[in-house]
Design a protein that fits this description.
This protein has one domain: Fe-S cluster assembly (FSCA) (GMP Synthetase, Chain A, domain 3), CATH 3.30.300. The chain is about 35% helix and about 25% strand. The protein has a four-stranded mixed β-sheet with strand order 1-4-5-6. Strands 2-3 form a two-stranded antiparallel ribbon. Strand 2 and strand 3 form a beta hairpin. Helix 1 packs across helix 3. The chain is globular. The relative contact order is 0.22.
């Protein structure tokens, strides 16, 4: 899982915080699922840009998950606004699950 970023330190902090966001249907956090593609920080405009995906385009928990991503990042980086782009290119696949996630899911 390689997350694209323009600030490695802040991205590490963001990913640690996002490990608290769990896909309730799978029971695994969105970082280990490989749902986060990019996190960029725009200090001048107090914005965080996130590109992420869901396990399927029709994920019934999609709004809940994306809302949680925004809340977690806005709480972690006080004063920053999160702009989230949901993308399905590339589409998610099980190969995107981290090694830790594979162990958790016994795959």
């Amino acid at each position: 899982m390689n997350v694209i970023t323009n600030n490695n330190i802040k991205c590490t902090i963001a990913l640690a915080a996002l490990q608290n966001v769990v896909d309730p249907e799978i029971g695994l956090n969105i970082v280990d699922l490989g749902l986060i593609y990019q996190i960029d920080f725009d200090e001048a405009n107090s914005k965080i840009y996130v590109a992420m995906t869901l396990t399927t385009q029709f994920c019934p928990m999609g709004e809940s998950i994306t809302g949680a991503v925004k809340r977690v990042l806005e709480n972690t980086f006080t004063g920053m606004e999160v702009q989230l782009e949901l993308t399905f290119d590339p589409p998610w696949s099980q190969e995107m699950i981290s090694e830790e996630g594979q162990k958790y899911l016994n795959q």
